[in-house]
Amino acid sequence: MNGCVPEGTVGNDEGCSLAPGGEAACSSGHCGTASVMGLLELGVCGECSSDGDCGPGESCSAPKVDLDLGTVTGAKCL
User: pTM to 2 decimals?
Assistant: First the structure.
């Protein structure tokens, strides 16, 4: 479900809009694209958008959808 929310109020691992400017809703400022079996794309707030958003020696993992558990996980610095 889409709805208007104040900027910076959506936490990591929660949905966000993939439309331009959708990352503004995320408290982290990062809205990534999680793919559901290559058929559907969902926006999800995460820690990073690219490796450059992470600390030295860390890389940005891709957002994930787990259909078995019914969960969506935002990108993380690992």
Answer: 0.90
